[in-house]
Amino acid sequence: MPYIPRQDLERRLVDAATEPSPRLCIVTAPRGAGKSALLRQTASRLAARGRVPVLIDFERIGTSPADFACHFPRAIRAALVARF
Asked: Which of 17, 56, 57, 61 could serve as 71's disulfide partner, Cβ 3.0–4.6 Å?
């Protein structure tokens, strides 16, 4: 399925991430609504601005704080290694 641009939402996410004090944004929608595609597009736009986006798939890492604590540093490390 092709990506359906959501220019206003993409702009709001990029603006929130590039403010002097970046804000956390949580994107929720039903399965199949295009959340992952939206986040990949937003990450691409952020990378074009010199940012290092880190995407974390919570469904893959589980929901426990221990799982998150283990996966989060790995996700950041992977993003930095891919960037540099």
From this structure: 61
Interval 39-53: pLDDT, tens: 889 999 998 988 888
- Greatest alpha-carbon span in the chain: 36
At 66, the pLDDT band (50, 70, 90 cuts) reads: confident
Q: Are 38 and 27 in contact (CB under 8 A)?
A: yes
Domain ranges of the chain: 1-53, 56-84
Residues 6+ apart with CB under 8 A from 38: 6, 9, 10, 13, 27
